[in-house]
Design a protein that fits this description.
By secondary structure, the protein is of the alpha/beta class. It is built from eleven helices and twelve strands.
Length: about 300
Amino acid sequence: MGMTLLTACGGGSDSAGGGAVTLGFSQVGAESGWRTANTKSVQESAKSAGIELKFSDAQQKQENQISAIRSFIQQKVKVIAFSPVVESGWDTVLKEAKTANIPVILTDRSVDSADKTLYKTFLGSDFVTEGKKAGTWLTKEFASATGDVNIVELQGTTGSAPANDRKKGFADAIAGQAKFKVVASQTGEFTRAKGKEVMEAFLKSQSKIDVLYAHNDDMALGAIEAIEAAGKKPGTDIKIVSVDAVKDGMQALADGKINYIVECNPLLGPQLMDLVKKVAAGQEVPTRIETEETEFDQAKAKEALPKRQY
């Protein structure tokens, strides 16, 4: 009952035992519009929940995240949450947190640790499903195509969960039909600048590109610049499907430069703070919590844009 009270009153209360809950949060970086919105959601939600937030930006480097987590352990925070840069290589530091009796919550991205007791829960999207949704749209869009459909893929950060899973989900969705050919696939590191650079290289190396599949909107937006600079029309000459549904991506979709976007919701803050309070109070939580998400075509993007928060 005490927990309901805590959540309701927003946290001025110290009935959880010993004042405000301290949360150490390590963020991947600020590589995209999505990530900026995610950070803002975490910071604002911590404030309104009365949780003391110690925030660290890893600048997309795993070693920075590991040292941030060690620093949180030394500071004896109540809970640690982080969005891992890559999937592998976390067992040592997670064991240190476990030894210190500090519960860990994974947000947005997971880790590939065999020992599932090293973290309490993972809150985030199903990236495989996101990739499948993108691939399914493509198979419908090109259902009547008789010749080969040449696809180029802009992958996210190498080794990251969203890049691995969005690639797999997409590949699974198009696997049944030989006409769909991924002719080039390379990382654009989830950034607009790199997305543009890699797309420029694709346009030079590939004589025919029908579709671009981008693992996030920022890379798709960079690619659009490259496509236009090459004298082609994005959304018409080259169909584009991407993942995220950030405001700039949605605008490009409304303008017809992107054809379809699979949503990945960055506003995880409220759900995260609810989990932080529960694990701090020693309550059991589900080991996997998925975020609710949808998909957008041009009409839905136009409808959603005026009230889009990110």
